[in-house]
Amino acid sequence: MVNLMLGDCLERMKEIPDGSVDMILTDPPYEISNSGGGMMGKDGRVFIEQVDSMNMCKSNFDVRGFLENVKPLFKKGCYNGLFFCSLKQLHEYLSFAIENKYQYGITMWHKSDPTPLCNNKYLNDIEWCIYIKQSGKHIKGDYSTKSLVYKSATNRVDKKLYGHPTIKPIPLLLKYLTNHTESGDVVFDPFMGSGSTGVACKNLGRNFIGIEKDETYFKIAQDRINAI
After folding, report:
1. Mean pLDDT for the stretch of residues 168-193
2. Which CATH number belongs to the domain containing residue 125 in this structure?
3. What DSSP assignment string belongs to 159-224?
4. In 4, 74, 110, 168, which residue has its Cα 20 to 30 A from 211's Cα atom?
5. Helix (H, G, I), strand (E, B), or coil: what is residue 75?
6. What is the tens place of the pLDDT at every residue in 118-130?
7. Domain count, the chain
8. What whole-number distance in Å separates Cα of residue 50 and Cα of residue 112?
């Protein structure tokens, strides 16, 4: 089952019946500082301009409101989500998990070829992903999938092919799906982008619901997912 929706996720997900989702795997808008002028270098400035132009870098993204809004969607009310986020947003996800007495952990994608930075900043070689789940949801997989760190080169080929600046590697998404879902589960991505989560779901035998508000990326996602 694949269900792709074009539009704003907070509106379109009202059409998803309560208790119908096993997991959320998504990459919501980041809060990224674009201060520092030349410290990020040319590539870094281009990246910031791309996410700004696509409205993907929001300092006003309501993390708490979003996490609360998706609560009713989970089967048996059992929270089970993985959310990519910026360092500035980590505390909001952690606070939500702690206040709700959910289990949580921080994982990361370590990029072996990050954009070079200079002056007084560390390399931009990590993307954070936090899992939030209730005790009834077990972490599956095995030794090969359970490392908290996934290391690979930046996803330049897919980024160039599909034009999405924050596209994630399919093997990374497969790792998360293996650890947090079973065959036939329903996975929801409310910020679908170019459809990588949907591609990973179809490759692994998971059902998928995706929402994307940008028509260009929605069409790309549609074509990628339907081609499998």
Report:
1. 97
2. 3.40.50.150
3. HHHH--TTPPPHHHHHHHHHHH--TT-EEEESS-TTSHHHHHHHHHT-EEEEEE--HHHHHHHHHH
4. 110
5. helix
6. 567 788 889 999 9
7. 1
8. 22
Please give the radius of gyration of the chain, using alpha carbons only, rounded to the nearest integer.
Answer: 17
Strand order in the sheet with 103-111: 2-6, 207-212, 186-189, 23-26, 80-85, 126-133, 103-111, 149-152
| Both structure tokens of 154 | 């930046």
* Per-residue tokens: 87: 């360092």
Q: Measured between alpha carbons, how far is 208 from 187 in angstroms, rounded to an integer?
A: 5
- At which residue do the structure tokens 């792709």 appear? 4
Place of tokens 């929270």: 79
User: Is 226 in a helix, a strand, or coil?
Assistant: helix
| Each residue's pLDDT tens digit, 207-222 | 999 999 999 999 999 9
Q: What is the DSSP letter of 95?
A: H
CA–CA separation, 101 and 192 (whole Å): 28
Q: Enter the DSSP assignment of 114.
A: P
Q: What is the tally of helices (H) and strands (E) in the chain? A: 8, 8
| Residue 68 belongs to domain spanning | 2-226
Question: Does the pLDDT at position 70 exceed 70?
Answer: yes
Backbone angles phi, psi at 47, to 5 degrees: -60, -45
Question: Which residues are 108's β-sheet partners?
Answer: 128, 149
